[in-house]
Sequence to fold (666 residues):
Amino acid sequence: MAHLVIHKELVNKENIDKVLKICPFGGLESECDELLLTAGCKMCGLCIKNGPHGMITKEEDQTPVVQIDKSAWKGIAVYVDHSSSGIHNVTLELIGKARELASVTKEPVYALMIGHNITQAAQSLLKYGVDKVYVYDYPALQDFLMEPYANVFEDFIQKVKPSSILVGATNLGRTLAPRVAARFHTGLTADCTKLEMKENSDIVQIRPAFGGNIMAQIITPNSRPQFATVRYKIFSAPAPAANPAGSLEKMTIADDRLKTLVRILSVKEKEKVMDISEADVIVAAGRGFKTQADLDMARELADILGAQLACSRPLAESNWFDAKHQIGLSGRTVHAKLLITLGIAGKVQFTAGMKGSDCIIAVNSDPHAQIFDVAHYAVVGDLYEIVPQLITLCKEAKAHALS
Amino acid sequence: MDILVCVKQVPGSSDVEVDPVTGVLKREGFSTKLNPYDLYSIEMAMSLREKYGGTVRAITMGPPQAKQALLETVWMGADGGVLLTDRAFGGADCLATSYALSQAVHKMSSYDLILCGKQTTDGDTAQVGSELSEELGIPNIGNAISIKLEREGFITVTQNLDDRIVTAEIPLPCLVCVDGDINSPRLPSYKRSKQVPQNAFTSLTLKDIEDQDKTHYGLLGSRTNVERIFPPEKNADRKTLTGTSSELATQISDILKTGKFIG
Ligand SMILES: Cc1cc2nc3c(=O)[nH]c(=O)nc-3n(C[C@H](O)[C@H](O)[C@H](O)COP(=O)(O)OP(=O)(O)OC[C@H]3O[C@@H](n4cnc5c(N)ncnc54)[C@H](O)[C@@H]3O)c2cc1C
Fold:
């Protein structure tokens, strides 16, 4: 671990003014001609690189931190996200990724399944290449309840000691994973968009960060297990194998660990609504559209192509679209065969949710728009001129095909 | 019902970029605002206080200027707030943040309910609420869309859980993370902004909380470590289409035809 050191001999009013302007996080403050670090510091290093030379430096800590024994932790475990409607596909995607990661360190891949009457479902995971599915099957675990589920998760970690744990970033996963990670005082990285394995079993976790157009590479260097959550559709589910080799292991836990004062009063299945995550063809509109009425163009194009209409965050925020239509880090991830973006800048938080699409056609009037960095076809032009003509051409092509 | 609301000050805009050459962050100016998702939990706290009585206090960890976030919460109607600030807290990940918050909560007078927002717009992790409940050893529930008091010592919470809506009874004290977009947050009141008593706010530093071991906070107390920041990757094999609008429209429609998306 490193920390920042402020070299007092170089601190003067001029230097303070300079460096205060550089820090984007309010991580520095001045008090009576002194320069202090605050709770806002993110260790981004900007003040070191761009500030007055040598005034702030990064020093490794003198007292070496006790290194944990990583070899005592083995295996990559995937939490099985399931409900009465079955196992969530994100689980299979994570099993696929876990296998890739495990091949680097030659570790086993585990799945942890918690619930009631779940043996059959657990069995079905073996064909995706899980070495062992650990099953906690109790009536008290029928519905998701934080305390019993966290206790079971804890029991699993203590008995099996997996090095890494991957959890789908569903609403459920996003509350359960932090509860368990905090219990083990270990690291958890949310919504990773890329995972890689190091030889020393540290997982390299990559995600957009700092609320900006930036990616951060994060590791959990000295704690186990290391936790990461990943959204649906970021990775691909593996093909099922014909002769799975893995096995099921039935786990037991003391009854008092399954108790909670929380009581479920009712569970209502939500109506299944259109989900852009499943769409093959998508037309996505951004702030390049000046008024809500102009969206008719996008809608017409989408209709002709049999596409779903989606949007960037500002359009969901201004209620031109329901939030379910938003693509991106805080919206849905899509994996379309064809995605046409219209008037979208392509900030990382947006591209995090669509980069995986097979064919991306981006229309933007700014030749330097970032969306072009992920597009397969960069169309530099005005959507207000292009889209109406494109609609006409598509209509013609369709009519031609029918005749 | 006495409620604590956890709030955070976040950057006012997301125009932060990495310089591809120096790998350093660039941000135009430094503006801040109250995390938009916190507005829903503050509104929830206000309406619970209106219905059932009690107090609402805000708590935030951040640099000294994060006091602004508390002020705004009080202008919306909260009774007061606590700012947790110390340079020992700098560079904290979610775990170190929730631990510091739990220490501050221990210092505050008793509470029935802690409300958190769904997530922040800068970190976007949605983890601190759940981690805080674990540090405090109290039950928690996420993605709440409604909270009611129906039985002494319990609240009834309706929760948006992916493919289902779950209603559960949960004992107090507990922590609830409130979903986004579930109410219409009230605006800060100008009148209140003129009337806020000085003693509505308290500051806590490392010296004021029980566990003063620096290695439990900030960067030292963090378990995750940012190894590197970098600009997003670029797709190398892209085609740039140029020409007049009608030429561009024709080129796109040709791509669509070739890909069998139309015709
Ligand atoms: C933590 C966090 C999470 C976020 N999550 C998401 C998310 O999930 N999804 C998301 O979308 N955003 C998200 N954002 C916001 C994101 O950073 C951007 O602000 C947002 O994506 C911008 O939307 P936009 O591209 O539509 O708008 P703008 O940035 O305003 O871009 C509009 C684009 O339209 C172009 N344009 C204008 N007029 C025309 C025209 N006539 N013809 C063609 N092009 C035109 C402009 O050149 C510009 O590139 C998040 C931000 C943060 C900090």
Q: What stands out?
A: Chain A is about 25% helix and 25% strand. Chain A has three domains: 2-60, 70-258, 276-402. Residues 383-402 of chain A form the longest helix (20 residues).
